[in-house]
Amino acid sequence: MELVLYRHGETTLSGGEKRFLGTTECCLSPRGREQIRVAAMEYRGRPERIYCSPSIRCRESAQIFADVLSGYQSRPKIVYRECLREIHMGEWDGKTFSEVRNLYPKAYEERGRDLVHFRVPGGETFLEVQKRAVAEMEQIRREEKGEILIMTHHGVIRTLRCHYLGISLSKLMEWKLGYGQCCTLRV
């Protein structure tokens, strides 16, 4: 069985200085909408459903993807799953990296030393993200027979990739996926 994991398109907050963008809501930028449209046009699968994070950037991406696919197949149903949300960054959510380094210097260093277990106050760890995302994938795998198309976030995809490829979660930041790009995993 294949998991086809797409990262949402670029957002209105993607430009400029890098920021901690977990549960902060934002829309796709015009470039992000185009990234998803192109990705959907290049996609050759025929999913009945697109499983999707309920965040605005993923919902917009899934809608565009489904609209494009409906041009040559029946329109896939979009199914929202809370466990596909991005990591909750708590007090840091929406802040730039430089803001966090200035406001929380010790915590920022601690995060660098233990990315897997570090928890921002009010947030969650990457280990927790991985556990909820893997549990969700296993549930979806029980519900589906063929290819599984997921529209989600970079952090979620990274944790799933580590799990299904047997890579230490401590190495999740060593791999990157661009906006509107996909990662296919055989599970």
Mean pLDDT: 96
The SSE string, one letter per element, is: EHEHEHHHEHE
The main sheet orders its strands as 3-2-4-1-5
Rg calc: 16 Å
Tell me the β content.
Answer: 5-15%
Low-confidence stretches: none
Quick one: biggest sheet? 5 strands, mixed
The N- and C-terminal alpha carbons lie at a distance of 6 Å
The strand count comes to: 5
Count the DSSP helices.
6
Q: What overall form do the CA principal axes indicate?
A: globular
Helix content: 25-40%
Helix/sheet category: alpha/beta
In short:
With 187 residues, the protein is of the alpha/beta class. It has helices spanning 30-42, 56-69, 97-103, 105-113, 126-143, 154-165; strands at residues 2-7, 49-52, 77-80, 148-152, 182-186.
Protein architecture, described:
- The relative contact order is 0.24.
- The mean pLDDT is 96.
- It contains six helices and five strands.
- The protein has a five-stranded mixed sheet with strand order 3-2-4-1-5.
- The radius of gyration is 16 Å and the shape is globular.
- Strand 2, helix 2 (56-69) and strand 3 (77-80) form a beta-alpha-beta unit.
- Helix 5 crosses helix 6 (154-165).
- It is α/β, with parallel strands linked by helices and 187 residues long.
Question: Key features?
Answer:
39% helix; alpha/beta; 5-stranded mixed sheet; 5 strands; 187 residues
